[in-house]
Write a structure and sequence with these properties.
alpha+beta; single chain; Immunoglobulin-like; four-stranded antiparallel beta sheet; 217 residues; 2 helices
Length: 217
């Protein structure tokens, strides 16, 4: 909620023991409401100037969007011939919860690969949590859901590429047929872990550069 009036320094008063104090033209005042409702306010300099602020509760969709970055993890790996990049975005492994796995197939330039046929399997602590065969994705991406997980441990995912082509034209399928791409969903691997890894790599490079032996001429 923001309010300013012409050239007059104007304080706002909201009946929640909140007062903006005087502020000049071009300035703004904001107030965060902890709960939904309708809240009247008025100008203490011009009491006849009144208004109403309507605060709405956050929707489930907005809450899910805010939680997305914290609740998803990402991994990718290339096929043995380097022609297909398999990317997975998944929810964080959590004991007693199903884990969603979003699989995307792209080429080396990041373009989606259509009509990919594949099998997908995942294991956690040696136990199968998903096994689906003969999948076909027209647009190059698919969604899968595991059984409820037994723990928060990493989940090993294997995508077997059966070939690229229409399901009823298997004899004409192309690509790295039968290639197995392995990925792992690690719960604790996130932005901080990636940053620590990057810093470690830079440190190793720096130490190596300082300790290298330069031959005398």
């Amino acid at each position: 909620m923001e309010k300013s009036h012409g050239k007059t320094q104007t304080p706002l008063h909201i009946p929640l023991q909140v007062e903006s104090s005087l502020f000049g033209p071009g300035k703004t005042f904001s107030q965060t409401f902890e709960e939904a409702g309708t809240f009247p306010y008025f100008c203490m300099v011009h009491p006849w100037m009144k208004g109403v602020v309507t605060a709405q509760a956050e929707t489930m969709e907005e809450e899910e969007e805010e939680m997305t970055d914290e609740e998803e993890t990402y991994a990718n790996a290339m096929s043995s011939d380097g022609s297909i990049n398999v990317e997975i975005e998944s929810s964080i492994p959590e004991a007693g919860e199903e884990m969603s796995i979003h699989v995307t197939f792209t080429d080396a330039d990041g373009n989606a690969i259509e009509h990919v046929n594949y099998d997908i399997a995942a294991m956690q602590n040696g136990l199968d949590v998903i096994s689906e065969s003969g999948m076909h994705e027209h647009a190059g991406e698919g969604m899968h859901v595991t059984d409820a997980l037994a723990s928060d441990s990493p989940v090993d995912v294997q995508v077997t590429i059966l070939g690229i082509g229409l399901p009823d034209e298997e004899a004409n399928w192309t690509g790295p047929i039968g290639d197995v791409v392995s990925l792992q969903v690690v719960p604790e691997f996130g932005t901080i872990a990636a940053l620590v890894l990057a810093i470690s790599i830079v440190s190793i490079i720096a130490v190596t550069a300082k300790s290298r032996v330069i031959p005398k001429l």
